[in-house]
Amino acid sequence: MIKPHGGTLVNRLATEEERKELLKKIEHLPKIVAGDRYVGHCEMIAIGGYSPLNGFMTKDEAESVIKDVHLPNGLLWSIPIVLPIEEDIWSSLKIGDEVAIYDKYNRPIAIVVVKDKYTLDLDFYCQNVFKTTDENHPGVTFVKSAGNHFIGGKLVRLLNRPIREGIDEKYYQDPADIRKVIEEKGWKNVVAFQTRNPIHRAHEYIIKCALETMDGALIHPLVGETKNDDIPAPVRMQCYEVLIENYFNKNRIHLSVLPAPMHYAGPREAVHHMLMRKNYGCTHMIIGRDHAGVGNYYGTYEAQEFVEQFVDKLGIKPLKFEHAFYCTKCENMATSKTCPHSKEDHIHLSGTKVRAMLREGKRPPKEFSRAEVADILIKWATGK
User: Fold this and answer.
1) Which residues are the active-site residues?
2) For residues 140 and 158, what is the distance between their CA atoms, to the nearest angstrom?
């Protein structure tokens, strides 16, 4: 099976015995209340989803990633995994201190040992990672709104998982769990599909195309923090379930969720998504049009071009697909590689356009969305 990034799957999950001891200790530690995305980072570090990271980045690590898309040791890494905290707490901390991370519900999540405390050039960060400093970009908003006082250091142990709402716990499978599933199924070549939207027919088409040459597919929706106008994860999960039930060979599909937050970093995030899926045991990953993009900040196939630079260092192979559409003359899904007809015969809608339709109570057309999926979306959008 494919090795995790860096060679070893990190595990910072507390045993029951460790948890009891650490919960006594945590009451006497400085307390940091972290937002959802940083609580999500804690979990992803602990379960090995961010291997080889075993904690939050130091200044040297963060700046190396921001500037060079690599960790200081030369290992490929594209998104800074940092922990911003309030200035008054930051000022009081010393190197070597332990701090307690709590979530917004006042639940203890993790303990981190302070190895470094620092600030960053946030404009340089945003320009390099998101290719913009425009605060209309959701990733820039996340970074700028979190402040500029960071601590880096090892995560001692994860004490509690984040609170789950509306998604069956069976879908939360750690990298070690997915690797076991892949091994039990006997899959050698496994393709991952990343999504933060309901799977529409173009997505279905490219997953099925990939499956023609793969042993299996991991449909792996991201369910961590996203921007406010994205369709909620529980609604999306209903769509994935009904689509797999009715339109996929279930023996060749595994549905699980990725509890990481979304960054909307386009090309940079395509690399990030691939490295995480490598840690989950996937050998290949679909990279389609405007992967992890938002608005008009990135070129249509810029993510594909970006990952190609690092294909020898990724260890997981990209499967690159052009934009798929429904052709009224072919009477099926196609791309420009397979369809000879003009644009006037092509029906394709972006996720943004579909969300706008739903807000107006309009049903997505059958050429874009399967009827069963459209039923779920229109019910969610209209409350009827």
Assistant:
1) 196-197
2) 28
At 145-178, the pLDDT tens digits run 999 999 999 999 999 999 988 999 999 999 999 9
Instruction: With a cut of 90, say whether residue 62 has pLDDT above it.
Output: yes
pLDDT at 364 over 90: no
pLDDT above 90 (res 191)? yes
Apex CA 101: angle with CA 104 and CA 53, to 5°? 120
On the CB side of 223, CA atoms within 13 Å amount to: 27
Q: Which two tokens stand for residue 132?
A: 């913009």
In this structure, the chain runs to a length of 384
pLDDT in tens, 311-342: 999 999 999 998 888 889 998 998 888 999 99
Q: Give the Cα separation of 81 and 87 in Å (integer).
A: 19
146-155 residue pLDDT tens:
999 999 999 9
